[in-house]
Amino acid sequence: MDRKYIRLSHILNSSTPTYGDRASLEIIPNSEISKGATVNSTQLNFSTNHIGTHIDFPMHYYEDGLSPIDVPIDYWIFNNIALVEIHINPGQLIKADDLIEYELYSDMK
After folding, report:
1. pTM of whole model > 0.70?
2. How confident is the prediction along the chain (109 residues), in pLDDT tens digits per residue?
3. How far apart are CA 83 and CA 102, in angstroms?
4. Burial grade of 20 (CB within 10 A; 0-12, 13-18, 19 or more)
5. Sign of the four-CA dihedral 99, 100, 102, 104
6. CA distance 88 to 105
7. Within 10 A of 16 (CB to CB), how many other CB atoms are there?
8. Are 82 and 92 in contact (CB under 8 A)?
9. Closest Cα to residue 17, out of 9, 29, 25, 7?
């Protein structure tokens, strides 16, 4: 069976917006094959976990909240994906109200 996948996030780079305009992501090569190293290795430095497309898990707000490792892996497998086009400004957050016209928000209330 031929499957198609859709990237639901974007690749992080030094231009990726951060929440609250905190410091941008730094991508620093640790070693490079082109400079004689045996492997390519990169260090990522960022001042916030609110960068790019992300999910705030309950532990972000509650002491005993669920963390990413508490959520079963099959929770992230979706069979019925809806693709919609939402016109927003760069850096603007998509909120539940933006999805109402697509009837995607009804189960979230």
Report:
1. no
2. 677 777 777 788 888 888 888 888 999 999 999 999 999 999 999 887 778 777 888 998 999 999 989 989 888 888 877 778 888 887 787 888 888 777 754 444 4
3. 10
4. exposed
5. positive
6. 18
7. 14
8. no
9. 25
